[in-house]
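Please decode residue identities from the backbone states below.
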């Protein structure tokens, strides 16, 4: 079954190593295969990855998802996950889920969970400043 993606005018999408930029009108793509795909809105730039500890997790998992050799990022992920668990134990359940998906080579699922981790971190930081 093909993945269907609607692109807005000027929107970009990453398909494997290729960046595709839509022209001036809406476009619908039907994509079949198992190449990693990311919409522009879901891509985290490296400069944004160092704003918070959980954004680093998202960026590392994003690198795993897009990489030809994702295993080379695992040590970085587990080091960062350990630091987060020590600093914020309430993040542990999400980190366990992310780790399970990584160990099963399901990087897209891990990426979605990493977004939830960032939201949890925002809650924690919001509570800390209140």
């Amino acid at each position: 079954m093909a993945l269907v993606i609607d692109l807005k005018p000027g929107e970009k999408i990453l398909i494997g190593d290729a960046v595709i930029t839509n022209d001036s009108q809406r476009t619908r793509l039907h994509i079949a295969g198992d190449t990693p795909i990311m919409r522009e809105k879901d891509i985290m730039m490296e400069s944004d990855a160092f704003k918070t500890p959980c954004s680093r997790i998202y960026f590392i998992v994003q690198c795993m998802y897009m990489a030809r050799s994702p295993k080379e990022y695992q040590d970085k992920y587990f080091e960062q996950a350990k630091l987060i668990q020590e600093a914020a134990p309430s993040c542990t359940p999400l980190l366990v889920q992310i780790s399970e998906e990584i160990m099963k080579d399901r990087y897209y699922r891990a990426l979605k969970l990493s977004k939830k981790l960032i939201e949890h971190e925002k809650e924690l930081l919001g509570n800390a400043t209140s």
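Observation: The helical segments are 53-66, 74-87, 92-103, 107-129.
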